[in-house]
Amino acid sequence: MALNIVVGIKYVPNTTNVNIDPKTGTLVREGVPSVVNPHDLVAVEFALELKDRYGGKVTALSMAPPQARAGLEHVLGMGVDEAILVSDRKFAGADTLATSYVLAKAIEKIGDYDLVVMGHETIDSSTAHIGAQVASWLNLPYIYYVTGLEYRDGYFYVTRELEDRVERYKLSKPSLIAIKMHSRIPRHVRLEYKLRAVLDSPIKVWSNDDLGLDPNCIGLRGSPTVVSKVEFTPKVPRKNIVFEGDIRESVQKLIKALLEEGVL
Amino acid sequence: MQHKFDVIVIGAGPAGSSAAYNLAKAGFNVLVIERGRKPGAKSMFGGRVYKAPVEKAFDDLDKAPIHRWVVKERISMVYDEEALTIEYDGRGRHSFTTYLTDLSSWMADKAVSAGAKLVTEVVVDKLLIEDGWVKGIVSGDEKLYADVVVDAEGINRLVLERSGLVEKLRPEHVALGFKEVLKLSKEDVNKFFGLDDDEGLAWVFMGEYTDGLPGGGFLYTNKDSVSLGLVIYLGHAVKELERHVYDLIERVRLSRIFNKYFRDARVMEYSAHMIPADIKALRPKRLVYNGLVIAGDAGGFLLNLGYTYRGVDFAAYTGYLAAKAISEASGDYSLESLSKYERYIDESFVGQDLKRFSGVHDLYENRRLFKEYPMLAINMMRRLFNLEYESTRFKDAFNESRKGVVGLTTLLKDLWGVYRKL
Ligand SMILES: Cc1cc2nc3c(=O)[nH]c(=O)nc-3n(C[C@H](O)[C@H](O)[C@H](O)COP(=O)(O)OP(=O)(O)OC[C@H]3O[C@@H](n4cnc5c(N)ncnc54)[C@H](O)[C@@H]3O)c2cc1C
Ligand SMILES: Cc1cc2nc3c(=O)[nH]c(=O)nc-3n(C[C@H](O)[C@H](O)[C@H](O)COP(=O)(O)OP(=O)(O)OC[C@H]3O[C@@H](n4cnc5c(N)ncnc54)[C@H](O)[C@@H]3O)c2cc1C
């Protein structure tokens, strides 16, 4: 019954103040404090609950520069058994296609997995591409906005919650699911697990020498996406006008003001 | 848990990392437990560290994240948006400015490089006490054993409180510090304060910015930013302060005296932290127990002279002494054996300073220092320098400024008090 689960972890800059390199159009990640993508913490919680229920093993997988070790140590502290950091300068500048390719190949190398769990999206790029793309590279069933899973008779019975309905799916093994944000509260780290993370260094680092991928399919070269221009939404100064007094008159005044602004 | 360490250190601040570094160097199997996401994540201070004691505790200080060496000292009395300032323009390399976050990180890295293990994001709830001995620590439902524990948790010493070793902190015993880090270019810092690239300024001021409450302000120049903050004694503030502390610091930044430096500055960071104030009241009954040594702010080791603060160097040094006492205990961590640490403290400059300056705290009870005297000083300057036709005799300027503000005998008494206590 035991499940072998892989969780995708992205270590993201913890800031709304994102700087873009004007030459390459890529994110400048140096010098910005980073955290584990909050969606992925929910994914880890989901995976650990499955492990608590069915037994097995949870492996965290992240494609990232070496600083991401701190993020992996955090999820190891939550109780993840093993972590793999896929890291190589050759992977730099990857768009979602190249990223998902590397992740898919790494998952293949892990081998005997039953379930891949991801966050729904990230807070820095939020494309929500990775789950779907990894699933298609690996030919796996893929469901997102997942809020629950039961494992019975070798199948996953998955619940996904949409705005107006709940859907249930029966998925074969292995599958890939992306977890709905806020469906779980990520657990705290435990001293015992953190100690193991520090003492036994269970983080494996795989470079492209380990994966042996075609240089044309990874990094900037494997990325067909071209960021031609980045524009930020202009800051609109707030006027902070409050209409007080009689409700009818205030509404009239509000409508008048909105008409004058050209919004109505 | 099956793990057991020789030493557990609570807190990766300057005191904890210093103890861990020196113990790891001496061959101990040390674990540091820090509640922040990384060492320094929860740290804040004013801005200046005295070199010598830190150098005793850590090698390679020249590789530490040092921003500027303080060569300029300013002390100001402020009243009605005017200031009377004394400036000392020296050339020593006795103290430097830095971000405590970075310095704490560097110190923790030193400890880890020396072989200490560091676990972050874990809060120690209390000491594990069995049969009158500290046997380790408790975190949530987990216990971890060690032969001896170093408590370096800082001034908010909840672990010691919960373990019944110290009383609950009272407002009268601490001050609250809060500050903004303001981003300027390096060139502007140099230009505004008349400094060379690696030269720094330490500026303290007292008077109207604390609304007449005991306390004061500070400004330290970093490489390409300035730390601007205030310290107020909580005992008074809880009773009398009528505005938010962030309003107080904003008022300093926007005041005539400081605003000229910060018109184009960006506020990078706002933070607040407690500071030990009444050192006598904060000193735990004992600094050691069976299996426990207390170092840094947790032991109340901080000297606030009004014109300068010494906390980080005291913390690093007491951490060093804790390591020394533990190393020399050769496995006997009983109270008697560890009490050597108390002797080391009392004989060191830390203990001596705290004894010699033990009266300084009483000065903070004298409200005239924060209200009447800055007013007197500024009024006197006005009379002496803001001339139109006739010039003012010094004696008249003094007497007229003093009249109705403070009596001559009181003034002489206060002067004598300051002279005696500092
Ligand atoms: C032209 C271009 C250049 C880029 N250059 C760079 C660059 O130089 N450096 C860089 O870091 N990014 C770069 N990016 C961004 C990068 O492609 C995306 O960050 C990455 O593909 C993940 O996409 P996302 O963040 O939108 O993930 P989403 O699809 O929103 O994430 C969904 C889930 O997938 C999983 N996941 C996502 N990313 C990872 C990962 N790396 N490892 C493990 N699991 C993951 C997580 O579980 C996550 O919750 C570039 C993007 C473009 C378009
Ligand atoms: C506004 C202000 C200005 C100051 N200015 C100066 C100055 O200019 N120069 C100077 O030398 N000193 C200054 N100080 C004092 C100086 O910051 C402190 O004396 C010094 O940081 C004390 O070091 P420490 O290691 O004892 O404690 P801290 O630096 O407070 O470190 C304690 C560490 O323990 C951790 N911790 C606490 N509780 C737990 C727990 N239960 N479990 C796990 N970890 C825990 C904390 O997260 C922290 O990292 C100032 C202080 C303030 C607040």
Short description:
The complex is a heterodimer of chains A (264) and B (422). With 264 residues, chain A is of the alpha/beta class. Chain A has helices at 38-54, 69-78, 96-110, 130-138, 191-199, 208-211, 247-261, and strands at residues 3-8, 11-13, 34-36, 56-63, 82-86, 115-119, 142-152, 155-161, 166-171, 175-179, 203-206.
Key attributes of the depicted protein:
heterodimer; A: 264 residues; alpha/beta; Rossmann fold; two-stranded antiparallel ribbon; B: 422 residues; alpha+beta; FAD/NAD(P)-binding domain; D-Amino Acid Oxidase, Chain A, domain 2; 3 domains; nine-stranded mixed β-sheet; 28% strand; binds flavin-adenine dinucleotide
Give the helix/strand layout.
The complex is a heterodimer of chains A (about 260) and B (about 425).
Chain A: E1 3-8, E2 11-13, E3 34-36, H1 38-54, E4 56-63, H2 69-78, E5 82-86, H3 96-110, E6 115-119, H4 130-138, E7 142-152, E8 155-161, E9 166-171, E10 175-179, H5 191-199, E11 203-206, H6 208-211, H7 247-261
Parallel strand pairs in A: 1-4, 1-6, 4-5, 5-11, 6-10, 7-10
Antiparallel strand pairs in A: 2-3, 7-8, 8-9
Helix pairs in contact in A: 2-5, 3-4
Chain B: E1 4-10, H1 14-25, E2 30-33, E3 48-50, H2 51-57, E4 68-79, E5 82-89, E6 95-97, H3 100-113, E7 117-119, E8 126-130, E9 133-139, E10 142-151, H4 158-162, E11 174-183, H5 186-193, E12 199-207, E13 215-221, E14 225-233, H6 234-240, H7 245-254, H8 256-262, E15 266-276, H9 279-282, E16 288-289, E17 292-294, E18 303-304, E19 309-310, H10 312-328, H11 335-338, H12 340-347, H13 349-356, H14 360-363, H15 372-385, H16 394-402, H17 408-421
Parallel strand pairs in B: 1-2, 1-10, 2-7, 4-12, 10-17
Antiparallel strand pairs in B: 3-6, 4-5, 4-6, 8-9, 9-10, 11-14, 11-15, 12-13, 13-14, 16-17, 18-19
Helix pairs in contact in B: 1-3, 1-10, 2-10, 10-12, 12-13, 15-16
Bound molecules: flavin-adenine dinucleotide (FAD) (2 copies).
The site of one flavin-adenine dinucleotide (FAD) has 43 residues of chain B, from α1, β3, α4, β11 and β14.
